[in-house]
Specification:
7-stranded mixed sheet; Rossmann fold; 3-stranded antiparallel sheet
Length: 223
Amino acid sequence: MKPSWDSAWEKVFQEREWGKYPPEELIRFVARNFYKAPDRTSIKILDIGCGTGACTWYLAREGFSAYGIDGSKTAIAIAIRRLEMEALKAEFVVGDLIQLPYPDGFFDGVIDVAAIECNKIANVKEIFAQVYRALRPGGKFFSIAIKTGSYGYGEGDEIERNTFTNVRVGPHKGQGIIHFFTEREIRHLLNLNQFKNIEIEWSARTLNNQKNKIIHWIVTTQK
């Protein structure tokens, strides 16, 4: 199995200032599922494809035991510096999502904010399997993934169905491999790993004076 991380991201993180705050949908997920925990430090949450740590920072700031993994050494270094500057703690690892270096049943939650989508479908299957393995029974999984038909879909070199490289327009321009998901595909992949209580919503926004639309699937499920 080829590594899931596209080396194009190393250049992206070296050259581009990245977002520093988590999406509202993630905040809602964490609040609904974990805010009532009597001891937040006992709740372990993994941010896969954490990038420069926007979501990991949020988890640490809210008092959870936060973990982040990404293939980019540059991104992880930035994330570590940010948390150190604010005296926050998280455990960061440079690693591959298809080989998560954590024990079975270790996490109460795993989150993915537009990282799994940066893979061919074979790797997506492996990542879902790794997430399922690393979650405790009843643990929750949250994912944001780009939808077919969203801005940039079809505007690149298609290497397999709904998977593109060299996307020429939109938010994925210059980001290497991008897979645009259908709802049916997401449900199928989750069902392969016996995830349960699958809920799929979508969120949309426009760009360029409403000329272009960006649509994301918002997925929640549990082991």
